[in-house]
UniProtKB/TrEMBL annotation, chains A, B:
Record keyword DNA-binding present: yes
Record's protein name: MerR family transcriptional regulator
Matching PROSITE patterns: HTH_MERR_1, HTH_MERR_2
Keywords: Coiled coil, DNA-binding
Coiled coil regions in record: 82-116
Domain (HTH merR-type) ranges: 5-74
Amino acid sequence: MSKKYYSIGEVSEKTGVSVRTLHYYDEVGLLTPAKNEKSGHRQYEEKELITLYKIISFKSLGFSLDRIKELLKETNSTHSLLDAFQLQKEIMLQQMKSLEKNINTLNQTIELLKDKGEIDSTILMSLIYSLQTEDKQKEWLEQYIDKEALDQFYEKIDTKRDDINKGFVEFSEKLKELYGKPVDSPEVMALVEECYQYAMNYIDEDVMEVFAGKVEAEDLENLDFKQLQNIAPSPFTKEEEKWFDQVIEYYMTKYAEQEIDDSNEE
Amino acid sequence: MSKKYYSIGEVSEKTGVSVRTLHYYDEVGLLTPAKNEKSGHRQYEEKELITLYKIISFKSLGFSLDRIKELLKETNSTHSLLDAFQLQKEIMLQQMKSLEKNINTLNQTIELLKDKGEIDSTILMSLIYSLQTEDKQKEWLEQYIDKEALDQFYEKIDTKRDDINKGFVEFSEKLKELYGKPVDSPEVMALVEECYQYAMNYIDEDVMEVFAGKVEAEDLENLDFKQLQNIAPSPFTKEEEKWFDQVIEYYMTKYAEQEIDDSNEE
DNA sequence: TCTTGCACCTACAGTAACGTGAGGATGTAT
DNA sequence: ATACATCCTCACGTTACTGTAGGTGCAAGA
């Protein structure tokens, strides 16, 4: 035969794997060619080339070197290979989902930034965080709202993503501007009213009712809302939030009065 | 105020980031809270909590900590954020493509393993490698075949993936079995004929002609085929390949004779 | 008063899969 | 013989953490 061995350089050339990487594979016992006694140079035979191609193939499918070491021993048993591949596929599908979510969030954020220009970084963070944890938010909501109504709600939202994001940012900005004003000042009330009306565009009445009913029924003040806060941090400081709570409270009582008035008039 | 500072434990609890990781962020200068002079305990203020949420958000979008450190400084300039997000989106789209390719390969391999049971690991490797580098193969082919015909060809193939993979494996196995037999033995010739016919199911005549013409026209024996070998290693050993080359050569001369006979009879 | 436990601290080490570079030995062509 | 390419080993750097050991300060229980 013209040539029995390949030098490490040749192997690197042929396969595109760096010399250092071949050293490393030798070091960890993944691919251990014989060595020339005198020079210590590595001598790769054809069977090792084939093994290397197997390694490259497995690696390209996302397996770790440790896993590959096992798989190389088991390549005769096709059954364990099948298992490994199916598992690996599940893992990659998971990764796909996560990537899709990220791209989605990035798309929405990019649209928003293009549209709005400057955005308070805290508000932006809050939005991104919220978009990224939407699944968990939905899970949380499923405790209180039945899945069907929720699915419907999210479907509706899905078509108006960019509008809603913009609304969220704008209301947050305006609220931050008004922070500190008396809770019963007309500007504040006007904004809250506007905000409420805006939200009502997207929230079905039945969803609202179910939720309102639950809120009164359960004592979720402590435990559960804390969990939600963890899932979706607000864009406001503690101070702002305190003020905002008062605003809401005032608005609710006023709103309740008006409701009574309305129903009396009917 | 009831509470000015959060302890590291509280922050960890609130955000889900481990204490050790918070230590780490402090160490690398990503999030450096003040320290109590006496005890050395870290004291997180609300602004640092907000920063931490920003960090979490950016991290979930796939940014490195170094990049995040820069982004945190630039959060006021929305412009650089937009750039960063757009770049990040491109990166994630790339990753998506790569993942899709992997899942595709895994799916095909899984189907094949389910269908065939035992498969020679070298043949399997060759197939996987080939599936994973299909893009590069196509690029290589584009040098010789015009894109339109090629696209058409791949489209056709795409609908019959599993069949073709199975065919590839079976012909490879059979060829390996026959290795060593005389190149003009009837079994060998029958297999090659069968293989040729099988391939013709998928290769359009015009593609074949273009390619055949090119093969004669150019001297791509050396440079370019080496490149292809790098892209798609064969499932055969050097010895087997040598033998196979002879088989093909013999087949081609025989085929050429037959062609002449055929045209004479017409 | 002792000690137990808890939350916190620092500091060192280890992970995966290499990249990079130093310093020296070997192979090959002229 | 000399130049130059190629190879060797050794060892540190990278990313984003995680683990562990040994030590401090403080509050509650025996």
